[in-house]
Amino acid sequence: MHLKTLTLRGFKSFASATTLSLEPGITCVVGPNGSGKSNVVDALSWVMGEQGAKSLRGGKMEDVIFAGTAGRPPLGRAEVSLTIDNTDGALPIDYTEVTISRTLFRSGGSEYAINGSSCRLLDIQELLSDSGIGREMHVVVGQGQLDQVLRATPEERRGFIEEAAGVLKHRKRKEKALRKLEAMAGNLARLTDLTTELRRQLGPLGRQAEAARKARTVQSDLRDARARLLADDLAQLGAQLEQERADEAALAERRRAAEDALGVARQRLARLEVAAAASARAASRATDTFHGLGAVRERLRGLASLADERVRLLGTAEPEHRGQDPEELEAQAERARASEAELEREVEIARTALEGAVAARGDTETAAAAAEKELATLLRGAADRREGLARLSGQVAARRSRVEAADAEIERVQAGLAAAERRAEEAAARFAELERDVLGAEAGEEGLDADHERAVAALTEARSAVERLEERVAAAETERATWSARVETLSLSLDRKDGAGALLAADPAGVLGSVASLLGVEAGYEEAVAAALGPLADAVAVESLGAAVDALRLLRDDDAGRAGLVVGGSDGAAPAPPEVPLPDGARRGVDVVTATGPAAAALRHLLAAVVVVEDLAQARALVAAHPTTVAVTRAGDLLAATRASGGSAAAPSVLHLTSALEEARAGLDDAVARGEQGREDLVGARAALEAAQTRHDETLDRLHESDAAMAAVAEQLGTLGSARTGAQAEAERHRTALAEATERRHQDAAALDDLVHRLEVAEAEPTRSEEDIAAATEARDVAQRAAGAARQEETEARLTLRTAEERARAVSGRAQGLARAAERERQAREQAAARARRRAAEADRAAGVRGDVATALEALARSTERAAAERAAAEAEREEQRAEVDAVRADVDRLSGELRDLTDVAHRDEVARAQQVARFEQLRARAVEELGTEPESLVEEFGPHREVPVPRPADAAEDDPDPDPVPYVRAEQEKRLAAAERALKRIGTVNPLALEEFAALEERHRFLTEQLADLKGSREDLLQIVAEIDERVQQVFAEAYQDTAAQFERVFARLFPGGEGRLVLTEPGDLLTTGIEVEARPAGKKVKRLSLLSGGERSLTAVAFLVSIFKARPSPFYVMDEVEAALDDVNLGRLLEIFRELQEDSQLVVITHQKRTMEVADALYGVTMRGDGVTTVISQRLREAAEAG
Predict the structure, then answer these.
(1) I need a labelling partner for 202 at 20 to 30 A (CA). Which of 220, 583, 843, 884 fits?
(2) Binding site: what residues are annotated?
(3) Which domain holds residue 208?
(4) Which residues hold ATP (predicted)?
């Protein structure tokens, strides 16, 4: 068995997946400090189950995850996989290769797996412990582990040996057995107490069970007697009910005949009332027509007067419009345009003259400059001749040298510029190539940004929708609470305690309900209708006069108080209201209410003479004109010819409260509906919010991943951009230097040409006369005077041009203003003519209207006469129908009295029958509740037609025949019931569940007694197991200690030649708890205590102790982290010899800086830290390399 591969992903500095292939033998891991060598040891400890963050050189377990660097983002998890070669079967698992993996997420979650299958940490620890690799990890010797061995207590040193010998798993099993014993002791004590308590309860419960058996026999006899008596009552009462139902059928037949006759009479009355109502409507229409024709006549007379006045006004002529002549204004505009054209021509002439003056001034100034230059040349030539040709020749040579040096500098700068431009082009090409490679990533980045923005917008919208719906639901809930409280308050206000409330609560036959509930009132008219009805607003409506009589009798008999009643009649139309002309804004009382049912006609009759007006002034005028009318204001003030009521506002009427209750209920229903709808919408909105949140998180994760990738690309682009910028800056510096050198070269060349010319002039004309200089001076003066005159002419030309332009601007707007004034004058004259034509047409129309009105008035007079005649005929017909209706109504009243008498008899019989039915139902309910039997089955099985069985005597023998049953006698059964009740009373209180409880308690006592015996047996078994474990631990530890002590003496002698070392037990008589002391005496020293040794000797002693354990109980592999760092060359050589011996039985993984340790290795791993903070590994098999060499 040996370690085969170790794979790290995101573990500490190993950001990328890194795999170390480990071979049998010695594998060394080398590298500079801080490169991540010890992270390999930490990874091995971590994957094998290490749980201490400090043992992994961290503050918390999350520190093992790659934390990121400046150029690389942090990772979200760390994963380490260790593959072990199990060909020899050292691990107790049926695989030749075992891969153990451990994953830790930054959120805190972790996963463990064996060969890809999820498992627990305990499973990994138990798997490794069977091969000598325990939780203490003695096979991994990390940095500082040697010092920990030296500072360990004797008991801790014992733990190293126990782990190597495999004793820890036995101790773990012993601890588990002891924990079970402790739990079992508590359970045993509780079980013993419970068994004792059950034995104490069995005695009293047995006595209760015996009493329950006796009571069961008496209760059976009691139930039989009670059932027979109840069945007899049911049979007798059922027979009485059948007889009364037959009498009810005969009375119902008589009532139907009376109702049919009354129905025929009421139908005739209804037809007559309909006809009377039609006649009343016809008479009302005739009256309305008559009054309407009168009103039309008045309106036509007013229209005629208006037409006369309009003809008079339109016949007067309108004042004539006065203004300037448009033609004259047009002529003035034309003259202004001609002046403007002439001025523009003058401006062009002045501009041409200015251009000529400017050209002349330029020519004269050029000639003056040439003359000045010629004079300067002659003067310098004379001066040069005076200075001497030799000096001038020297200046020419020096300037020519500077020109040649400038040419060389220009060539050098041009070469540097070409090189810099070439480097810039190469960097730009590499930059463009990388940009082309990143184009796809940038396009994806834009798509991710758009997706994330859409997800953010969707999430915001979903949150807003949820908030809006929550506000709607909260508002609806608030409104629901408000309306609910209002409904409850109004309902309590309408809960009446007077006679009307008693009637409504009793709900006798014929009561329709309160007037307020049957009458619908338009909003705003509640006070007016309540005042019009007066006390009847709080009254109760009944369907007929008989129902009213019954209600009054009920109130008197029950002493329930007084109540007002509105007596309903037929469903026909109510009497027509009196014909009264209504003031503005007034309405009839019957028009502001709605009523249906038997009481509708009576309610409309009560309001027939009522008119609702705006105020008391209208009410007084209306009542004064029509004394039969009752006027009511909307504020509740009533005024009639003989009575009046009103004043300040009082308590709300029942009508007002009823209307408010209906409004509150409607509001409550609406609030509940809106709340339910809002909650339904809120469920969908929250689901949409969850989906939007999920989408947002997904897009954000993808965007973060893309940002990390783009950051790496951006770093490369930044490097190339810096290179390109540097090259471009260098090229720009060369261009600047080249421009400066070229400029200096041009200046030097110009100076050289001037010097050469001066030299040539001096050599060619050595004796130039003073006359030539004088002539040149005269020519220069003439040219300067000509230039001054040209400049003066240019100034005068500019002044002339400016004056012409100002005159042209002054004239340019005048022509346009005159043209606009002419157009406005023409439009004003056209409008005046149009107005005159309209006035003439309107005058003609007014005259036509005046004639038509005269004709209409003549026809209207004839129509008014006919309307008056029709109104008189309709009034006569209405009086005849009213007399016939009165006669038929008398017949209806007579038939209604007969029907009431029959109804009273039926009601009395119905009340008596209802009482008998109630008693019968009570008996049926008793049959079900007391006996648990349906009434029909009870009568069938226990009725008076059944014989009563006689119980067997108590002293009768078993073979004696049963007594013969006897006929049913009610008195005997009543005596039997009383005797059973007395016997049951003598028994006293009985626990009906005593029999079942006694049987259950007895069974539980027997079960617990058996369990108690089982627990005692299990306890003895566990104590035997503990004893066997202790014996096994002593045996295994004694053998391991003897082997380790022997190996320590040999290893110590090799590491300390001439020295002496041994291991000593602190308590030799108790091998289960004894510790181990280490005695070390190097050669030439008499000390034995470890604390008195030097640092190197202490480290070497710790190595000797660990190596002794390794040799006594070899492990498949060992990991050592710089254990030889404190040793000199001699001791290092001795330790390496021991490493070679350990190599024969175990695999060694050594972290080292020592060259000699590297030389003995079979494989070498180099660990280095890249510039981005990530560890990189390079491997080499030294044996193969040596053979190849």
Answers:
(1) 220
(2) 32-39
(3) 140-212+1005-1114
(4) 32-39
